[in-house]
TrEMBL record:
CDD domains: PBP2_Bug_TTT. Residues 1-25 form the signal peptide. This is Tripartite-type tricarboxylate transporter receptor subunit TctC. It holds the Pfam family TctC. Gene3D superfamilies: Bordetella uptake gene, domain 1 (3.40.190.150), Periplasmic binding protein-like II (3.40.190.10). Belongs to the UPF0065 (bug) family. The keyword Signal applies. Keywords: Receptor, Signal. InterPro entries: BUG (IPR005064), Bug_dom1 (IPR042100). It comes from Paracandidimonas soli. The keyword Ribonucleoprotein does not apply. Coiled coil: none annotated.
Amino acid sequence: MNFRLFSCAAALSACALLTSAPAQAQTFPPEKPISLIVGFVPGGAADAAARMIATKLSENIGKTIVVQNKPGAGGNIAHQWVANADSDGSVLLFGSVGPLTIAPHMMKLNYDPFKDLAAVSGGVHFPNILVVHKGVGVKTLAEFVDLSRKKPGSVDFASTGTGSASHLAGELLNQRAGIDMVHVPYKGGGQAMQDLLGGRVASYFSAPPTAMQHILAGNLIPLATTGLERPSFLPADIPTVAESGYPGFEALNWYAFVAPGATPEPILDRWNEEIVKVLNDEEIKKALNEHGLAPQPTTRAGLTEFMQKESKQWAEIIRERNLADK
């Protein structure tokens, strides 16, 4: 082969490699091990939901999906890690309302939720429930608010981290009720609940799955839920904050599936298809409902629109409450 023919052959081979690379990168399911990242410690609502969904996803695609917990900073550590992770479809994040739509308005982050992360599908949503340790001595939201007014700065509330849904629910109650509860952030629902049960904090806007067993055992007193309607999976006598004197009060907790921002569109579409299929599965819906979680399957565009709406809402509260870092 002369030099010119050799050069042409080499060029054609190079082109073939270049054109085949995207096709290989878009293989589904990905050839690499698949990880579903959760930004909180094991034991909370996010972890429970993620593991249920990951198990069914693994069955459907014929490949194990490993749930990895990366707690810290209200979930921001996990979100930043995924924003910088491989974008070949092997990494998914069970993202949450805090890091995706609250934290960006409170602090400087090293990622942009709408640029560095790609929407895949909604996951689950639920209201939080305000619970207090039985030793606090209150049984209604009105009594709790009165106690907070009589002892400003001494009544505290736990959360799953600064900028989390449970944090903003407390700040919203501070704003609406004119009280001054002290925020105590934790790395996840499990740790927050442990200190609440131990009487080391007075209250917690908890995920229902985390709180219900302790409510039924009589160790915690439920005061109100943070949705606009009483959820069917909770005792019917627990009112909402909205109907307890604060009309329009709503602070939902939700988790959604996102991926590294540069993940190829075909891979994102396939993940959306598979996740929506799982969330519409009757057994999964029943299992999630039993844990107080409502499935929230969406299109990719639908999740982006939902996130934009939530981001606008919480930006206004953060500005009004002067919560952003200086």
